[in-house]
Amino acid sequence: MKKALITGANKSIGFETARQLLQQGYYVYLGSRSIEKGKLAIEKLKNEGLTKAELIQLDVNDSASVEAARIELGKKTDVLDVLINNAGINGGMPQEALNASIEQLQNVFNTNLYGVVRVTQAFIDLLQKSEQPRIVNVSSSGCSLTLHSDPTWKYYDHKSAVYAPSKAALNMYTIALAYELKDSNFKVNAVCPGFVATDFNGHRGTGTIQEARTRIAKYATIGKDGPTGKFFSEEYNPETGECPW
């Protein structure tokens, strides 16, 4: 049975992705900063008959928490097949280039970039023991430099000087990570779940959470001939799924 760890999995897209992987036969570790919310999420899944789920307390902002989570997971398994770096924050609005504070930028980068680095580096040894390890970094088409430079793009006027830079940096980290692992069986990709109405964005959106989870799960479970080092947004490009950087 393949095993997956999802950060920020106690609610929303992370939780729904956990549900889908469980339905596909994976054993899923739900990373949750809050023990209480994590326990409620596990209970909900088990009430649905999805019993192959366990809670791992994990705050991606805290190196000590990440290290403790690695120790805890190491007691439960010696191999990890999938890591989904889902935990993220938007940093609040407004996000104007001339008014965004350094503190605001630091807080968002600490979660959206540094958090991914902390978790990936901490759990890479378990992933390396998998025959077909997969890493999905949850990104956003809203961080595409190409799209944001195109006045004809439908979201051209929706600039953010905090959240988008954090995800653009995450994309570059994804490229670097995929390159370092290119001579292995790893598949490492950045995936945009789409513009989905959740509490993350004030419940505004055009896509469904079911679509979002399916997109993430797709790249978490790709076969040996699947892509690596790519950026996907099936909302932006329904045909190939690939999104410009």
TrEMBL record:
InterPro entries: CBR1-like (IPR045313), NAD(P)-bd_dom_sf (IPR036291), SDR_fam (IPR002347)
The entry's keywords: NADP, Oxidoreductase
Secreted recorded as keyword: no
GO cellular component labels: membrane
Keyword Glycosyltransferase among record annotations: no
Any one GO molecular-function label of the UniProt entry: oxidoreductase activity, acting on the CH-OH group of donors, NAD or NADP as acceptor
Highest taxon of source: Bacteria
Protein family according to the UniProt entry: Belongs to the short-chain dehydrogenases/reductases (SDR) family.
Name of the protein in question: SDR family oxidoreductase
